[in-house]
Amino acid sequence: MDRLLSMADAKDQIETILDIASDLKSGKITEKPLKDKYLGMIFEKSSTRTRVSFEVGMHQLGGTPLYLSSKDLQLNRGEPIPDTARVLSRFLDCIMIRAKKHENVEELAEYASIPVISGLTDKEHPCQAFADLLTIKEYKGDYNRKLVFIGDGNNVCNSLLLASAYVGMDMVVACPEGYEPDKEIYELAKEEAKKTNANITIEHDIHEAVKDADVLYTDVWVSMGDEEEQEERERIFKPYQINKQLLSEAKEDAIVMHCLPAIRDQEITEEVMTSSQSAIWDQAENRLHAQKAILYTILKE
After folding, report:
1. What is the mean pLDDT of the chain?
2. What distances in angstroms separate CA 101 from CA 97, 132, 153, one per listed residue?
3. I want to staple 269 with a disulfide (CB 3.0 to 4.6 A). Which of 90, 99, 107, 243 is the partner?
4. What is the distance, to the nearest Å, from the Cα of residue 253 to the centroid of all Cα atoms in its chain?
5. Structure pTM?
């Protein structure tokens, strides 16, 4: 794997990367193979988990991370993406970028001669999906499960659709009409799911969607860039809140996940978020282990 812009880039290495993540987390792998390796981290959007986990993870693997705010780069003054890609390729071993537009990341990867990792775009969030798969495996033991993503069919949802299809996990997107996931990704996920006998569906009835669910997953209703739609989105998504009642309609041992940050008592209640069925904090920690495994796979010689 020489880049990770989409879950599709890792489709044949998902299990390997997750095994490495587990071994890194448990201490089975203790080597630091990235000595003298440099990771440039470009941020066009604010970040907590992505920045800290990549920075700490790179250090723990023996490498050096460099924080590069887009405001401080010449990109902010109009330097073309291809020029930035060519120059950074002379200095670094890998670029991680958290960007506003997916096409900009694709352009960066096209002109870079080093691997590029997406730390989030408006289209996908593959690093989050790896952490999510690791968490589900830890809690449930396998992927013969039903995952229900509740709310906006956003970038996280898109990556989870592909991830679920590749590992053979059933996934239902429970969303209001007009807020479905990316059509192209949804169709690709359904096609890939045929190979693993997974069921990938969209359901607008929230109560029908959560029946027999092993995992309930949600994200904020108003993502970065959608602030102008806040009032309308809050009204439309109100019936799609994960609360105690909705959780009781899933399997008795269902777990709850959220990629964070969360707005308590909006998309998820405080009661559920801090309940014994919440896997959210382990999920957040697993960003570190999953991303270390991605770096390990891409950069280890």
Report:
1. 96
2. 11, 23, 17
3. 243
4. 24
5. 0.97
